[in-house]
Amino acid sequence: MKNVVLRPVIAVNEENCVNCHRCIAVCPVKMCNDGSGDVVHVNSELCIGCGECIEACTHDARVGLDDTAAFFADLEAGTKMVAIAAPATAASLDGNYLQLNGWLASLGVDAFFDVSFGAELTVKSYLEYKNAQNPKCIIAQPCPTLVTFIELYRPELISLLAPADSPMGHTMKMIREFYPQYKNHRIAVISPCYSKKREFDYIGHGDYNVTIKAIAHYIEKNDIDLSRYPEHPYTGPDAERAVLFSTPGGLMRTAERHVPGISEKTRKIEGQPGVYHYLAHLGEAIKSGEAPIHELIDCLNCEMGCNGGPATTNRGKHIDVIESAIEKRNKEAQERYRAKGLHLSKKAAFKKIDRLIARFWKPGLYDRTYVDRSSVFQKTIRNPTSSEIQEIYRKMHKTEKKHILNCGACGYKSCEQMAVAIINGLNRVENCRHYMEVEVEILHENHHEELNRTIRSVAGSSASRLKANMTDINSLADLSSEMASSVVESSAAIEQMVANIQSITTMLANNEQSVTALDEASSNGKQGINSIVSLMGDVAHQSDSLLEASAVIQQIASQTNLLAMNAAIEAAHAGEAGRGFAVVADEIRKLAENSGNQAATISRALQHIKQLIDETSESSLSAQSGFERVVTLSEQVKNEEASIKAAVEEQSAGGQQVLEALARINDLTAKVKDDSAILLSSSNEILSEIETLSTVSNSDTTIPERPSRTDTILVQG
Known about the structure:
By secondary structure, the chain is mainly alpha-helical. 58% of the residues lie in helices and 6% in strands. It contains 20 helices and 11 strands. A 4-stranded parallel β-sheet has the order 6-5-8-9, sandwiched between helices. A 3-stranded parallel β-sheet has the order 7-11-10, with no helix packed on it. Strands 1-4 form a two-stranded antiparallel ribbon. The longest helix is centred in the middle third of the chain and has 73 residues, at 433-505. The two termini are 28 Å apart.
């Protein structure tokens, strides 16, 4: 038993990986991928090396590993080399496979061998085994990827694998056995796949896996024109129809030469997912007696066979374009064996190739055994219990049967397979589409409720403050009415006083009684003026309160506007579910702006009113001072009657000024009353809108139900 450990053939460029899980989706075995972190890593011990993930990755995060760089470096250093080329080489490089030999010869490669002749030896190994053992079924094994798959995941099929090397293995052993001149030469294999390197480890031959894709890139990078080099024929023997081996059905068509009608007993299957689905159920079918119905199973990992391998340049090309070069070579090979001037019959040509094959045949030389690697999988991947699966389902929010979507968005073929990966530490619940949808819904609901609480809180606070301000406004309106009544009364008193003063002017002489009346009237006037001054102070104080109320309203409008903006943002985050709420938020914003503008207007009016009140207050103080002088003069009138006339005249003028000031106060008081009414009306409107907003926030909002998706991603199993 050789080399149980499988070498890595696929690497991960962590910087390029976006954790999209496309690599997992196309992987036939899934559990070789670790998607538990931000980068999907590869476990080479479980990887079959199919290379599908390389093609699927659009970020160049998956890279195939080969020996091309080492090959050219060692060749340049003078290392002795022979090269063997897979049949798929003829389907690549624009058919310049012999010019490829010419170019490599110019670099120092000493000999070239065609793996197609190794395929001729492989067919003989199959037929020798069939004739000796007469098995019911043989699985052809030219594809190292499928061999690894069976060894790891379907060990019950190992006994069906043909116990012989692949065409490449036959070719390398032939060189070592029959070409002693190349005993010390290293062998470079120009191959269509990355997993060929694993065969080197098993059979003990082969030094460089030089992939067709890598060598084509080297040619392009270094601007090499193969058409400028001469055709260099293969050093080893020429194959006949085994040049078809890289094409699906090529084995069958080659075997048909020796076993006519074998095509009716051959199962031809290639490409994912069909080949793995077939192999996954073949063991059960054999146990149940339903299979096999074919003696030979010719299966290949890649669609279009080795011609479409992951390390070729042919993926994306039309199959007819690819196979035309192979069919042309097949025709040329058959004509070569029948011609050469001898015009041999088919039967004679077959004998000729048989004699050539016999020259390079040695019993037991090309035998192969296989390794049961299933223990590696069993030790690495634990099969969980049903209760463990259910617990993972619970963490994934899969609490009902309808939640088992099997959508494939995670990369796995079923929710159960995803759960198994999570249990084994190869993935996480966050990569489940259903889980993330539920988490988004929970987040949306929590955010929605928090927003409603905030709205209710702000609306309640704003309504309370607004109601308090409305009470102050009503009080101000009442005080304005009282002040207006007092002003009217004061005006009447002042008018009477002026009339009395005018009457006193004509009665000054020897009119002591009138002087006494004047003294009394002056005292009364002083008290009235003091009352007016006091009332003016109250009016000024209430005006200040009104300005504060207006500022509070402006602040409420600003807070309401900010609230509306936050609500609009949250509604945008909610998407379609928040469109209705966005409309409400916009109306609240508009109301806040209107309220703020109106409050600003009222504030300007109140400031003007206050200015006028301040002026009136100053005039009242002046009048107060005048009345004090009247009292003084009245006291002096007893002694200085001559000066009473002048004093009376002065008092008459002062009285007139008081009347004019009172008139202005009356006008201002009316305006304050009117503005208070307007402010009260606006406050009522704002309060109504706040109550509406609070009602909306308290109402139940139905979140749109998540649409059910049943679309699936095609995965293999």
